[in-house]
Design brief:
- With 296 residues, the chain is of the alpha/beta class.
- The chain has a single domain, classed as Thiamin diphosphate (ThDP)-binding fold, Pyr/PP domains (Rossmann fold), CATH 3.40.50.
- It is built from 11 helices and 10 strands.
- Strands 2-1-3-4-8-7-10-9 form an 8-stranded mixed beta sheet, sandwiched between helices. Strands 5-6 form a two-stranded antiparallel sheet.
- Helix 6 links the parallel strand 7 and strand 8.
- The relative contact order is 0.13.
């Protein structure tokens, strides 16, 4: 935690609100990783906005003293996109879970990726709907038994890394909440990246998922950088994204899968050529009447 007496007010990122997660929830590790990244980047807190949806992990904005929006289920990215396009000087971080982002919100992920919206999306992936007490989520493994699949899950899981790569995300990474130092570097670099950054995080649910535990992940995860992975090669990145399926979950790569530079949506939008919308003059009544006349 930060020592409020030794940190300038504009860089005091903790709000004092205590998270409501179960003891040992993986989201605590993600919280610590985000805080570490913020402390190192030293972005003034009034220039940061955290957006979330619905779910356990979507409570993430509350412990932080930045601006925050606790939005609707699956609608994180439209809100975050609106914030960024209204004022591109803001650092926008979206946080949510696998149910929120890869279920009801997956269509928004596709379009935020292909548009290359300049924001950072952190998804806490625990393979279950924790807030509603443990139903099967879009990333749950085949055969997994839950309240909603008592005879075993029969749906193929969503592969977040492959999906992000195939739809145009320009920074694609995955971390593990059991290694918050490594995760923090991924988050920090994602925030600094100019473009759409997605960071999927293995974040164990200690209450409702007794299969994908901390020990289960520790036995399987390995860091891409330890193998000299070339994150500029999308083909190699896709191969790594599919590795967990090919190896039947024996190997789970974490780290930076892919990074490239491409023009962002706001840099090409003609409506923003004169600067952020919040800096542009509002339409007057005369402007509106003139538009009406043109359309008669």
């Amino acid at each position: 935690m930060q020592d409020a007496k030794s940190v300038p007010r504009q860089y005091t990122y903790t709000s004092g609100v205590k998270p409501i997660w179960c003891p040992a929830c993986g989201d605590f590790g993600v919280n610590a990783a985000i805080l570490k990244a913020m402390n190192e980047l030293k972005i003034e807190r009034h220039n940061m906005v955290m957006v979330s949806g619905i779910g356990c992990s979507s409570a993430m904005p509350h412990p932080f003293s930045t601006y925050g929006i606790h939005g609707l289920h699956g609608r994180i990215l439209p809100i975050a996109t609106g914030v960024k396009l209204a004022n591109d000087k803001l650092t926008v971080i979206a946080t949510g879970g696998d149910g929120d982002g890869y279920g009801i919100g997956v269509g928004h992920l596709v379009h935020a990726s292909r548009r290359n919206i300049d924001l950072t999306y952190i998804v806490m992936d625990n393979e279950t709907y924790g807030l509603t007490t443990g139903q099967t989520s879009p990333t749950a493994m085949l055969g997994r038994k839950t309240k909603s699949t008592p005879f075993g899950n029969i749906e193929n899981p969503v592969n977040p890394m492959a999906l992000a790569l195939s739809t145009g995300a320009t920074y694609v990474a995955r971390g593990f909440s059991g290694d918050p130092v490594h995760l923090s570097e991924l988050i920090k670099n994602g925030i600094q990246h100019k473009g759409f950054s997605i960071i999927d995080v293995f974040s164990p649910c200690v209450t409702f998922n007794t299969v994908n535990t901390y020990d289960w992940f520790r036995q399987r995860v390995y860091k891409l950088e330890s193998e000299g992975h070339d994150y500029t090669d999308i083909g190699k990145a896709m191969s790594k994204a599919l590795e967990d399926v090919v190896s039947d979950y024996a190997k789970l790569p974490i780290g930076l899968f892919y990074k490239t530079d491409r023009q962002t949506y706001d840099s090409m939008d003609i409506a923003l050529k004169n600067g952020p919308l919040v800096k542009q003059p509002a339409h007057t009544e005369a402007d509106m009447l003139s538009l009406l006349e043109e359309n008669r």
